[in-house]
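So, does this match?
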Amino acid sequence: MLAHPGISTFYGTAFWLMALVLQAVFRSKPEYTMTIASGCLLVGPFLAMGLYDVSRRRNLGLQPQLGESLTCWDRHVPSMGMLVLVLIVLELLWGRASLVVFAVFFNTGMPSTTGVVQAVFNPDNWEFVAAYAVVGGGFAMLVFSIAAVSIPMILDRGTDAISAAITSLEVVFHNTAVMLVWGAVISLLVVGALLLPWGAGILLVGPLLGHATWHAYTGSVRWADTAVAGTAP
């Protein structure tokens, strides 16, 4: 980020605009937040791949360029398209499951944004909080396990979506404790960034996690023919 502040600022701004959209949806229609997030999930991986490309080029001793990072996915459209499609389907199912949980516990109608906050912090609604956490946590863990290293792997090696997803699942399975900590770090940083006024913290946290994810990939997947990026986890 310090070596290429302009590129990082561009991607940070893009993530920030996505966060503003999600916040606006949450304020007006909180029950649709997970559904609208699927649209961000369509754009997010392509933006993140640009950050991975910057870190990859830097590791190789090449000079990163914003234009090249914006188009680095064009040689991997089939694999990226398949992976993003799977993630969007999971996100839509996640959104639908969230609506079901809301409908079960709020059968008099969907609560407002204030109602959601009150419901979360109301001890009388612990069943709703527990159910929402279980459903959301299950989908979040599945999405995280599939995407943990799959997208940087596609960029690095041009592998197909299925192989990349399986490798990502294997990385999480064989390094469960470490990956849970990594997932918790991501969650805490993102939540902390969004709690700042206007969610401005995402301007910094977004590109930071993008670059960090590339290094998480190179640190967890080793390839036989190179020391920079790692065929088997």
The two ends are 27 Å apart (CA to CA). The mean pLDDT is 82. The CA atoms of residues 150 and 213 lie 10 Å apart.
